Amino acid sequence: MNKIITISRQYGSGGREIGAKLAQKFMIPFYDNDIITRAAKESGFAEAAFENAEKKATNSLLYSIAMGMNAYGNQDLGFTHLSLDDQIYLAQSEVIRNVAMEGPCVIVGRCADYILRDFQNVINVFIWADLEYRKNRAISLYHLSAKNPEEEILKIDKRRANYYNYHANDKWGKAENYHLSVKSNFAGIDYTVECIKNFVEHEVQ
C-alpha cells in the first residue's frame, strides 16, 4: 500500500481514533499532533502558536478580515509580509508535504487534503456523525462539559470550517473534496476503519 490517507472530521465523530486504527491496520505512521511538534521544531515557533491558529477562526468574516489586516495592514512591513498565522500555516504545510514524501501515512486534519492536492497517491476521507452521537462521545471521551455541549461542538466545527475555508479557499466537508465520506455512528468506529481500509485496497488495485 503506497497511499497517503487524509482524514477530515466533525468534532466528536471519532475521526482521530479511526485514523489511528487505520494506520495500525496498514502499519504506517499516524500524524496528528505530531505535525505540530515537528513544525514547531523545524520552524522555531512555539507549539502553542500552532495550537491556537485554528482556535482563532470562530467567525469566517472576522477571521478573513483579521488575517488580511495581519498580512497587509502594517505598511512599515510592506505588502509581502506574512501574518504570524500565515507563517504557521506554511510551516505546517511544509511538514505535511515532507511526511507525505517520506512514505505512506495517515494524516488527520490541518487542511492536509488541500495541501496535498497535487500528490497523485492521496485518498481523502471525511468522517461525520449525528450530533447526539458526537455529544455523547465528546462528554464521555473528551470530557466536554455537559452544559451546552451541542453549542460547543458546533462552535468547534465552525472553527475548523472557517480555518479550512480560508486557507484552502474552498468549503470544508464538501463532497467533491473527498474520495470517501462515512457516517461513523451508522457504521461504528471499527467497521468504519474496515470500510476505509477496503476502499483504499480496492483503489490501489
What does it look like?
By secondary structure, this protein is α/β, with parallel strands linked by helices. The chain has one domain (4-200): 3-Layer(aba) Sandwich (Rossmann fold). Helices cover 58% and strands 11% of the residues. It is built from 10 helices and 5 strands, in the order E-H-E-H-H-H-H-E-H-E-H-H-E-H-H. It has helices at 15-26, 33-43, 47-55, 60-72, 84-102, 112-115, 131-141, 149-168, 184-187, 189-204; strands at residues 4-9, 30-31, 105-108, 122-128, 180-183. The chain has a 5-stranded parallel β-sheet with strand order 2-3-1-4-5, with helices on both faces. Helix 1 (15-26) crosses helix 10 (189-204) and helix 2 crosses helix 3. The longest helix has 20 residues, at 149-168. It starts with a strand and ends with a helix. The relative contact order is 0.22. Residues 59-80 have low confidence and may be disordered.
